[in-house]
Amino acid sequence: MKFIDEYRDRESVQRLLGALRSSVTRHWTLMEICGGQTHAFLRFGLDGLLPPEIELVHGPGCPVCVTPVEQIDRAVAIAGREEVIFTSFGDMLRVPGTISDLFAVRARGGDVRVVYSPLDAVKLAQDHPDRQVVFFAIGFETTAPANAMAAIAARARGVGNFSMLVSQVCVPPAMEAILASPRNRVQAFLAAGHVCAVMGYWQYHPIAARFHVPMAVTGFEPVDLLRGMQAVVTQLETGQAKVENAYGRVVSEAGNRPAQEAMAKVFEPCDRQWRGIGVIPHSGLRLRPQFADLDAEARFDVGHVAASESSLCIAGEVLMGHKKPADCPAFGRECTPTSPLGAPMVSAEGTCAAYFRYQAPAGASHV
Amino acid sequence: MCLGIPGKITEVFERDALRMAKVDYGGVVKEACLTYEPEAQVGEYILVHVGFAISRMSEAEAQETLRLIGELAQFDDQEAAA
């Protein structure tokens, strides 16, 4: 497959590893933000090939993992209503709420459906005018334009029985929260390539400068991941802190302007709770007042949601890069992908699920 | 979640006032919305996320990346020979 195969080429990987080995002189801690990159990194076995000086910690870039438990509980409550067809990306169905998940709602007879595109949810509403179709609009900036277009399309087509439960999050405020933490260990970032496909990377220059942290916009194939690492390690070794683009075939500095405009038309910034981490100021997106009629939280009064988390789970520590999955006493014991205590063990892109799937638990921690 | 897959546009059409495409991912063909990449043409590669094209793949940048990696090897070979 063009644009993929050449970035999995063994010889290119070896050349990049050679360059990395010859440039690194001391221990550096890098963070990849995106859960897709965490999985690619472990899936291709890159963790076993890196020079020992380079440590990779894994960031909070899994929207399924950081969707707050309150919002899962709201989804469960709305999805259980008789008039509702609840639609979601597949990953969300097994994420545990306080007492239930969306799969359990479906098992009890609720109409919960997986959609590939947000536009499929709008189409479903058009096809079922007698039902209320609710779409669980989660995701980072990569997904926000698609979710925004669902709102725009529903409005343009006069679809009155469509609404959205919104839990959108944005990457730059989370990076700042990680860097500002007194326990921060991250010395350089691999910026998430597909978030940057939409947003560009102009937002990152002030963060790199303020915290003196190198960044490289990074893709998802082994060659891409190593190029990103090589870029930031070279900067670290030479005392630089700028933003480089190591994913030029997909990302430009300005990003995708029409997508940014649609996002800005439908959503506005808000403070947002990140599961396991807490509230990060201005890190979320919510519907603008002009689109408030599409807000499922207002349309369906589900009352007070008393959310609570497992006391064993250390998801927040893992998502901030302070700890690795094997540091959790429940990892691989009380908490497994078939019986998860926290969201990072559920999602296809969760850090704990990646370690459980690709690494023996005993060898999982480098910390 | 932020999975993006490169695919080749085989057909462009309009539906419900949105510009759409049929996209070939190495044999599997699916539809994608082109509203955020309105200039994309048949034969071009786009990156698709949850049914939306979010980027047109740059052939020139792809070649440049591979060229740079090729240069790394030369550098290493010279170092090894020295």
Task: Write a brief structural summary.
Chain A is of the alpha/beta class. Chain A is built from 15 helices and 11 strands.
Kindly describe this structure.
The complex is a heterodimer of chains A (367) and B (82). Chain A has 15 helices and eleven strands. By secondary structure, chain A is an alpha/beta fold. Chain A has a six-stranded mixed sheet with strand order 4-3-5-6-11-10, with helices on both faces. In chain A, α11 links the parallel β8 and β9. In chain A, α6 packs parallel to α7. Chain B is an alpha+beta fold. Chain B has a five-stranded antiparallel sheet, with no helix packed on it. The longest helix of chain B is centred in the last third of the chain and has 23 residues. In chain B, 35% of the residues are buried. The chains are: A alpha/beta (367), B alpha+beta (82). Chains A and B meet through α1, α6, α7, α9 and α12 of A and β4, β5 and α1 of B.
Give me the Rg of chain A, rounded. Answer: 21 Å
Biggest β-sheet: strands ordered side by side in the sheet of chain A = 4-3-5-6-11-10
Percent of residues in helices of chain B: 25-40%
Q: Which structural class best describes the helix and strand composition of chain B?
A: alpha+beta
Q: What is the oligomer described by this structure?
A: heterodimer
Spatial order of the strands in the main sheet of chain B?
Answer: 3-2-1-4-5
Q: How large a portion of the residues of chain B is in β-strands, by DSSP E? A: 35-45%
